[in-house]
Amino acid sequence: MKVVVDREKCKAHGRCYTFAPDAFERGPKGKGVARHAHVSDDDADLLGAAETGFMMCPVGAISVDEE
Predict the structure, then answer these.
(1) Please, which of 14, 43, 49, 54 could form a disulfide with 20 given CB 3.0 to 4.6 Å?
(2) With helix as H, strand as E and coil as C, how does the chain read?
(3) From CA 26, how far away is CA 62, in angstroms rounded?
(4) How far is CA 46 from each of CA 17, 29, 56, rounded to the nearest angstrom?
(5) CATH pick for 2-65 out of 3.40.50.12780, 3.30.70.20, 3.40.50.720, 3.30.470.30
(6) Distance of CA 3 to the CA centre of its chain
């Protein structure tokens, strides 16, 4: 899975790294940053964290897509 945070859409709510710190971290100006650009389908915990961050983003700045 590919994990991307759209820096233009992100409004620094911090919900991704608050609720899914294994997949996201606080970047410049409080905006979320994906810790891993690619998550293996075999890593259920990390995949779940990436999907949690995606669901928690109130502005839809995160995408988690099949590669």
Answers:
(1) 49
(2) CEEEECCCCCCCCCHHHHHCCCCEEECHHHCEEECCCECCCCCHHHHHHHHHHHHHCCCCCEEEECC
(3) 14
(4) 13, 25, 15
(5) 3.30.70.20
(6) 6
Handedness of CA 62, 50, 25, 39 (dihedral sign): negative
Q: Which residue type is seen at 67?
A: E
Within 10 Å of residue 41's Cβ, how many Cβ atoms?
9
pLDDT band at 66 (very low <50, low <70, confident <90, very high): confident
Cα(64)–Cα(37) distance, integer angstroms:
10
